[in-house]
Design goal:
Layout (H helix, E strand, L loop, with lengths): L3 E3 L4 H9 L4 E3 L14 H16 L8 E11 L2 E3 L5 H11 L3 E12 L4 E13 L4 H10 L19 E5 L2 H5 L3 H10 L7
Parallel strand pairs: 1-2, 1-3
Antiparallel strand pairs: 3-4, 3-5, 5-6, 6-7
Length: 193
């Protein structure tokens, strides 16, 4: 199989590529992840994923495959990216407690043969139980919120807060696996049966 350049430093995305048995090299995108005011979560995630790919293609000379993803949390029209600090994480968790929010993950794949980028996104819904101040402090003390959209990692301790999920679990973690698999096959990457 051909090597894929992963335009990300995300541990979760690296683990997914390892799980799939795909050969890859990490070349993290230097892109600053900034969401424009009034930008829709899906549009923002797709734009950021494509921009990450575009930022890395010139850095990965002769790469045939470059992949990037972006995950955002949205609640009532407000987009929650990665928290700036502990106080920002606490604000996000207080807002999410006892409510249902949307998690959008976008995946972008560059094919050197086609000189084109295929971008797809998935929206899932996550409902949290109400969170007490003590639970929020306990979670913040874990440090797990750092670098996580919406200030939580569903595959970790935050799973204790989840009442229900509608949609793709892998997408909530940060990579919509079904869509990624389809993208590889649709763009001619030799993977799967």
């Amino acid at each position: 199989m051909e090597e894929i350049i992963l335009a990300s430093a995300s541990l979760q995305r690296r683990e997914f590529l390892r799980l799939l048995g795909l050969p890859f090299t990490c070349v993290p995108s230097p892109l600053q992840e900034i969401v424009a005011p009034h930008e829709d979560a899906r549009a923002a995630a797709e734009r950021l994923a494509v921009q990450k790919v575009n930022a890395v293609v010139p850095l990965a000379a002769h790469a045939r495959w470059v992949f990037a993803a972006d995950t955002l949390v949205s609640l009532g029209g407000e987009i929650f990216g990665k928290p700036a600090d502990r106080n920002d994480a606490a604000r996000m968790l207080r807002a999410l407690g006892g409510r249902t929010h949307e998690v959008v993950s976008a995946a972008a794949l560059y094919s050197g043969a086609a000189n084109a980028i295929d971008c797809r996104s998935v929206s899932s819904a996550v409902t949290f139980a109400p969170l007490s101040p003590g639970e929020i402090e306990w979670y913040l003390d874990s440090g797990e919120w750092q670098g996580a959209a919406g200030a939580y990692k569903i595959q970790g301790l935050a799973s204790c807060f989840v009442v229900s999920i509608t949609g793709s679990f892998s997408s909530i973690v940060g990579l919509p696996l079904r869509e990624f698999y389809d993208m590889l096959r649709d763009n001619g990457y030799p993977y799967g049966g």
